[in-house]
Write a structure and sequence with these properties.
The protein has about 325 residues and is α/β, with parallel strands linked by helices. It contains 14 helices and 15 strands. Strands 5, 6, 7, 8, 9, 10, 11, 14 and 15 form a nine-stranded mixed β-sheet that branches. The protein has a four-stranded antiparallel β-sheet with strand order 2-3-1-4. Strands 12-13 form a two-stranded antiparallel sheet. The chain is globular, with a radius of gyration of 20 Å. The N and C termini lie far apart (about 60 Å).
Length: about 325
């Protein structure tokens, strides 16, 4: 316990939170809960993995891991593939285990699993993962689809495509097509060349990463309001382009690993005001806060209250934002 306190103290001194960031979190949570947020942000998240059911059953993986003496917990009855490793393992032990190298499990933080648990891709679906690397959510979708159907896994960075391809191969994914193109341009090309529409789309947008402080303390240093506003502009364009590519009646998940309303509810509010979409209430076995309906004097649509905010202090996870968007018609799509 002392070592944990010493480590946390060391991180606080090396990566202090900027005043503007503290003020924003206090506005969102109040001073008491903001302190809880920052306190846990200087600690490590529990080790969590997802069983890759394309290659092994949950039961067989549990037997293998327990044979190593690992203490494995399944926190959610509805999602037995989600596992937390409670044992204190050596650095790199989870990543170097034979079962990981064989693709029997994927090392993935629980918050990262949420978008696909909400999207619920099924066998036969046509799915677009617009910002796919490193492949955690793409491989999760393939497992849920049992390799039946088609996933377009898009990534703009050639270096990150290498990581994506490696993870898809390791996990035995056979229903994914990897593309390399800027997200908006990819959507526009699909519409122009084919008029093809997807059943389900994930826009897990690049973001300022406020929810990832526990694994990346350097985010404390990188944080600034100008970056948030710049990223929000990119996110808005990605979300707009993706909605246009979604079938009427289809489902789109817009998610980020940040807690900034400019990158979360304000993007969803923009979609509500410009397209014929509705936000669907989501239930998952975690403690969530509802979406923020007012920020810095701007009133947002009451629909954004249905979005989910995951704060690290509530479930001992990373921070995350998830919204489930249903397309009602082509209104606003230029068709």
């Amino acid at each position: 316990m002392d070592k944990k306190k010493d480590y946390s103290k060391y991180l606080k001194e090396k990566f202090p939170a900027k005043e503007g960031f503290v003020e924003r979190m206090e506005t969102l949570l109040g001073k008491k809960e903001a302190k809880e947020f920052f306190d846990i942000s200087y600690t490590k998240t529990p080790s969590s993995i997802r069983c890759n059911t394309l290659k092994i059953s949950v039961e067989d993986l549990l037997k293998r891991l327990k044979a190593y003496g690992w203490k494995v917990r399944q926190p959610f009855k509805e999602f037995p593939e989600v596992m937390i490793i409670d044992s204190k393992l050596m650095p790199g032990e989870i990543g170097n285990a034979k079962e990981h190298l064989l693709g029997y499990y994927y090392v993935q933080e629980i918050s990262s699993m949420l978008p696909m648990l909400v999207l619920k891709p099924e066998a036969g679906d046509f799915v677009l993962d617009l910002c796919a690397s490193p492949g955690s959510k793409t491989t999760q979708a393939a497992a849920m689809m049992e390799n039946d159907g088609t996933i377009i896994a898009n990534e703009i960075s050639m270096g990150r495509i290498g990581i994506l391809n490696s993870n898809l191969e390791r996990c035995g994914v056979m229903n994914a097509i990897v593309t390399r193109k800027e997200g908006v341009a990819l959507c526009e090309r699909f519409l122009k060349k084919s008029q093809f529409k997807f059943d389900k789309i994930l826009v897990d947008a690049p973001c300022s990463g406020e929810g990832t402080l526990r694994k990346s303390p350097k985010t404390f240093q990188m944080w600034n309001i100008h970056m948030i506003k710049k990223i929000a502009s990119t996110q808005r364009r990605l979300a707009e382009a993706a909605v246009k590519l979604l079938k009427v009646g289809g489902t789109m998940i817009y998610s980020t690993c940040t807690l900034a309303p400019e990158e979360d509810e304000m993007i969803v509010d923009h979609l509500i005001r410009n397209f014929d979409v509705e936000i669907e209430q989501v239930k998952l076995p975690l403690k969530f806060r509802c979406g923020v309906c007012e920020w810095e004097g701007k009133e947002l649509s009451g629909e954004v209250k249905k979005c989910l905010r995951l704060y690290p202090q509530d479930n001992n996870t990373d921070g995350f934002f998830v919204s489930k968007i249903i397309k009602k018609s082509e209104k606003g799509c230029g068709l």
